[in-house]
Amino acid sequence: MSGPTPEERFATLFDANYPALLGYAVRRVSHPEDAADVVAEAFLVAWRRLDDVPGGADARPWLFGVARNVLANYYRSERRRSTLAVRLRETLTTDPPRAIVEPSTLGAAMALLSEDDRELLRLLAWEGLARDEIALVLRVPRATVRVRLHRARRRLVHLMAEVDDTNRAPAQEALKRSASPGHVTNRRAAGLTEAEEI
């Protein structure tokens, strides 16, 4: 009895891994439709290199590795588009100012990490991959992943503390100013009537 055809093998690979691969891509691109393109490109590579795809549980991290390469090309294109968008925004003066959104401590700290550190932590926390699987995605030894994860976590904790201190400083300064002698924050609190002020 002959084994499954290439088409059947690919269909099984696709059905088993598409949702996870789409989630991986969605969390790394600006627009959901771009994520679908990334996944389609990754599966196209998988089809062309079907004999290179590992069997069993190793197939998923292998696909993540392919998607990561596709994303590298996406980011290059995105940077070019962003540069153009910045130039266009600079020429427009009629748009209302954008609302300032305060990022969370974790989000702000993640943004300060290197791209390599961010990717390691995302693969671990968002994708739920084990160290062995992360090693397959990044094409590095497992020991390297262990060391890099340890360092990335330490850097993240340090940056979170820094961000927290930075966010807390303005509030503390405002508190000091309001408590300083001679600083009147409220007429009634100062014991002054409108007549006395006049």
TrEMBL record:
Residues 174-198 are annotated as: Disordered. The keyword Transcription regulation applies. GO terms for biological process: DNA-templated transcription initiation. GO terms for molecular function: DNA binding; sigma factor activity. It holds the Pfam family Sigma70_r2. The keyword NADP does not apply. Residues 106-156 form the RNA polymerase sigma factor 70 region 4 type domain. It comes from the Bacteria. Keywords: Sigma factor, Transcription, Transcription regulation. Residues 13-81 form the RNA polymerase sigma-70 region domain. PANTHER family: RNA POLYMERASE ECF-TYPE SIGMA FACTO, RNA POLYMERASE SIGMA FACTOR RFAY-RELATED. Belongs to the sigma-70 factor family. ECF subfamily. This is RNA polymerase ECF family sigma subunit. It comes from Sanguibacter antarcticus. The lineage of its organism: Bacteria, Bacillati, Actinomycetota, Actinomycetes, Micrococcales.
